[in-house]
Design goal:
Elements: H1 3-32, E1 38-46, E2 67-75, E3 84-90, H2 101-109, E4 113-118, H3 136-145, E5 149-159, H4 161-172, E6 179-183, E7 205-208, H5 216-220, H6 232-238, E8 259-262, H7 275-288, H8 302-327, H9 348-360, H10 362-373, H11 390-416, H12 439-467, E9 471-473, E10 476-478, H13 483-510, H14 522-549, H15 560-587, H16 591-608
Parallel strand pairs: 3-4, 3-5, 5-6, 6-7, 7-8
Antiparallel strand pairs: 1-2, 2-4, 9-10
Helix pairs in contact: 1-8, 1-12, 3-4, 8-12, 8-15, 9-14, 10-11, 11-13, 12-16, 13-16, 14-15, 15-16
Length: 615
């Protein structure tokens, strides 16, 4: 391809990327603000509650004051003279305030002021996780303090662990709210300080519990989610002895004893991501709060924001590919640009055996770490100074262990078989035929990767500044790093780099499919690599969820949280399959793709995951 043709291709790709990023961000902003009818503010406020709830590090002392972060949705016309009803919305574990976007958008469209906060240790709220009653008390107090909010007309909503936050807030400030919306959560968890429910607490209680919820045993002490209607714990709150009827109103809204159960046919992480469950929440708040607009609960626009932020995410991926390709054509980086060596990977039956091993090996390690080490006291994955995020620690140790096993198997294959066929490190993209291991080129590869991901990160930070949006789709979200999270990335970057160097070697040196050396073979290689990276998780989730969809329990009930996290891994590895393959094809070596992937993964996990350690 000529220089002129490459320049035109880059310009076209960059234009598409910018249209997707800016167009998606601006369109998401229009949806989020109701085309200017709602003001969205990124707010910070200081908490005053002092409680220690950090099972990941019980020996740590919580600071007296924790700064909280939130998105505040203010409908047009709300003022000190024209107070609007308010709703506090709190996300679940290892999520952030953006997970409440649907409620923020739909409630604010209906005239409610909505405060969607980051729990303590999550998003941009100060660490550690679980501290200060998850931030619920302070958040409710802050919402009540706003002069344009009707403090006598406040609803509180929480999903999953966010339900614990509002349950504690409701107990501590019993006259501070009028309506309680529990989204696939519970009340009554003594180890976390969550009070038990009763016929009078919480006031005007609605439970939206997913029909295929993964936490029915933990939340409501029933083995199957469908049995929650007969659970003693729920019956006590409803003050009845018979089966709870879905959709029936019990008690009195005027007396604060109203009770209602909704059961949308979804799984736990989709309870805040489907029209039916959002409609359930809207219906309840409209029935129990005064002052909002009587807009039909089925009239929803939030899904468009998800579509537009996903378009922006696609734009970021295009930006990474286009910018990386352009830099490889510059004078400084062009020496990195080479054709891959002719493949000397596995073939025939051996390739399929290698593929099966590559797919299977990560799964039991992932299962073991999630099921037996998440928040386990004294675990080697526990939060510490250099690695303060328990969940990122699990992913990091999983990656390192898988990397070591993969490296051992690769070396055995090379020395016992492939080396005898004339294969060398240059055939795997590790060395150069002339000059061997060229550290100056490896250094340039790292620099190129850093520049590209830095600009990708800048684009999402710019989107946040311009539109108060980020890049996301459901559980997959890309948030800009603040100063605290940027410091945290330094502890994780080396282990993840080790993993991706091994992964790149295996993908391109051992598992590269046949007949892909031609330009037309690019997409075959991309699709093959993506499938190798995600098919194991997809099959595992299928096995995990089929029993619960059939009316039973999860195949592995103790793996509920780890299974949910797999949905995010599928999205991440799909993107990485494209990045790894493209830059291997462009450079003939693994380094640019591996470095880019390690920075990329460190960024997304550190920015989106919860900090359990307090500095």
């Amino acid at each position: 391809m000529s220089v002129n043709s490459r320049s035109k291709l880059f310009n076209s790709a960059m234009i598409i990327a910018l249209i997707f990023i800016l167009g998606g961000g601006f369109s998401a902003y229009l949806v989020q603000t109701g085309c200017g009818k709602v003001e969205v503010r990124d707010v910070r406020f200081m908490g005053s509650t002092v409680t220690q709830m950090n099972p990941a590090a019980p020996e740590l002392k919580t600071p007296k004051h924790i700064q909280m972060s939130g998105l505040l949705y203010i409908p047009k016309g709300a003022s000190a003279k024209n107070k609007a009803p308010g709703i506090l919305a709190i996300h679940g574990y290892y999520n952030s305030r953006e997970a409440q976007d649907a409620f923020g958008i739909e409630f604010s469209r209906r005239g409610y002021v909505v405060l969607a906060v980051d729990q303590t240790g999550h998003g941009y709220s100060d660490a550690p996780a679980f501290a200060n009653a998850f931030g619920g008390i302070d958040s409710l107090a802050y919402l009540r303090s706003l002069d344009f909010v009707d403090s006598d007309n406040i609803g509180i909503e929480g999903h999953s662990m966010g339900g614990w936050a509002i349950a504690i807030a409701a107990a501590v400030i019993p006259n501070g709210y009028k309506s309680f919306l529990c989204m696939s959560s519970t009340v009554g968890l003594a180890p976390f300080g969550v009070p038990a429910g009763s016929p009078t607490y919480p006031k005007n209680f609605a439970l939206v519990f997913s029909l295929y919820d993964e936490f029915s045993g933990f939340f409501w002490e029933v083995p199957k989610p469908s049995l929650v209607v007969n659970g003693a714990k729920l019956k006590k709150i409803f003050d009845i002895t018979e089966t709870v009827q879905v959709g029936k109103l019990y008690g009195s809204i005027e007396k604060g004893t109203a009770r209602k159960l909704y059961m949308p046919a979804v799984i736990h992480p989709m309870t805040t991501w489907t029209n039916e469950s959002i409609a359930n929440g809207i219906e309840w708040m409209q029935a129990t709060l005064k002052g909002g607009k009587n807009l039909d609960p089925s009239d929803q626009i939030w899904r468009w924001k998800e579509i537009f932020t996903f378009i922006a995410l696609i734009g970021m991926v295009i930006l990474v590919i286009a910018l990386g390709g352009y830099l490889l054509n510059t004078e400084y980086f062009k020496e990195l640009k080479e054709e891959p060596e002719t493949s000397k990977s596995l073939s025939g039956v051996s390739w399929w055996i290698g593929a099966i091993l590559m797919v299977i090996i990560p799964l039991p390690i992932y299962y073991y770490l999630w099921s037996y080490h998440h928040l386990a006291p004294g675990s080697f994955t526990s939060a510490r100074f250099i690695w303060p995020q328990q969940i990122t620690n699990i992913v990091m140790f999983w990656a390192v262990i898988v990397g070591i096993i993969s490296l051992v198997l690769f070396l055995l294959w090379h020395y016992l078989s492939n080396k005898k066929k004339g294969a060398s490190a240059s055939d795997y993209g590790l060395k150069w035929k002339e000059g061997g291991l060229q550290w100056n080129k490896i250094g340039k590869s790292a620099l190129l990767a850093f520049i590209v991901i830095f600009i990708a990160h800048f684009s999402v930070a710019l989107s946040g500044w311009l539109f108060d949006t980020d890049y996301r789709l459901w559980v997959l979200g890309f948030k800009p790093l603040d100063a605290m999270h940027f410091g945290v990335t330094l502890g994780y970057i080396i282990p993840f780099t080790f993993y991706f160097l091994i992964l790149g070697t295996v993908l391109h040196g051992q598992m590269r499919p046949a007949n892909v050396d031609s330009p037309s073979g690019f997409w075959k290689e991309v699709i093959t690599n993506i499938v190798l990276l995600i098919i194991g998780y997809m099959l595992f989730l299928l096995i995990q969820y089929v029993p619960i969809f059939a009316g039973g329990e999860l195949a592995l009930p103790e793996f509920n949280l780890g299974g949910i996290f797999m949905f995010q891994l599928i999205g991440v590895f799909t993107i990485l399959g494209i990045i790894l393959t493209y830059f291997y094809r462009k450079t003939g070596h693994i380094y640019v793709g591996a470095f880019m992937s390690s920075i990329f993964v460190t960024w997304i996990f550190v920015a989106s995951q919860v900090i359990h350690y307090i500095y």
